[in-house]
Design goal:
By secondary structure, the protein is α/β, with parallel strands linked by helices. 38% of the residues lie in helices and 22% in strands. The protein has six helices and seven strands. A seven-stranded mixed beta sheet has the order 3-2-1-4-5-6-7. The longest helix is centred in the C-terminal third of the chain and has 23 residues, at 163-185. The model has no long low-confidence stretch (mean pLDDT 97). Bound molecules: 5-O-phosphono-beta-D-ribofuranosylamine. 5-O-phosphono-beta-D-ribofuranosylamine binds at residues 9, 11-15, 88-89, 109-111, 174.
């Protein structure tokens, strides 16, 4: 049976879309059970609705603590038999409750060659720094910011001074690399 995954996203969801499309095309052996977001207005919600994937929206602000928020997420995931968490533009640090519920079962994609340029605005940081090569990293999630063990990386050439063009090239690589990396580890 294909492993059951949940995709976590907070924004446009182009990686959610790419993963969904890869599964539909038979290129990714997984069942996308649910999309989890902390941003009810995000475009990824529309994408999930259109794809017929359940969209679960949580408002972290309405919970007294982060642990209580994550506990509610874990319960929803366990009810649905989710086995792996795939973070794709989820703009929150994952903490203990999720990490303990899914040990070595949470992965993330980051738009740089880690450990360079962790955190927010990685593409802007790379262009501003003037590096000639940046890239994409898929890694396991730990309690740090973009610090877990690396699963896969691919280089992307920087278009000098041009965040938009560099971002476009990076997103293209992300969409292919995430599927490849997941096929490697979901076996
Ligand atoms: C991607 O660049 C991903 O690497 C980063 O956030 C971005 C999400 O883009 N973590 P999208 O919402 O999947 O289009």
């Amino acid at each position: 049976m294909a492993p059951k995954i949940a995709v976590f996203a907070s924004g446009s969801g182009s990686n959610f879309q790419a993963l969904y499309d890869a599964i539909q095309a038979g290129d990714l052996q997984a069942e996308l059970v649910v999309m989890v977001t902390d941003q009810p207005q995000a475009f990824v919600v529309e994408r999930a609705n259109k794809a017929g994937v359940e969209a679960l929206t949580f408002s972290p602000k309405t919970f007294a603590t982060k642990a209580m928020y994550e506990q509610a997420v874990v319960e929803a995931l366990q009810q649905r038999g989710v086995e792996w968490l795939v973070l794709a533009g989820y703009m929150r640090l994952v903490s203990d409750v999720l990490l303990h519920a899914y040990p070595n079962r949470i992965v993330n994609i980051h738009p740089s060659l880690l450990p360079s340029f962790p955190g927010k605005d990685a593409i802007e940081q790379a262009v501003a720094h003037g590096v000639k090569v940046t890239g994409v990293t898929v890694h396991y999630v730990d309690e740090g910011m973009d610090t877990g063990p690396i699963i896969a990386q691919r280089a992307v050439l920087v278009t000098e001074g041009d965040v938009e063009a560099t971002a476009q090239a990076i997103h293209q690589v992300e969409h292919a690399l995430y599927t490849e990396a997941l096929n490697q580890i979901l076996k």
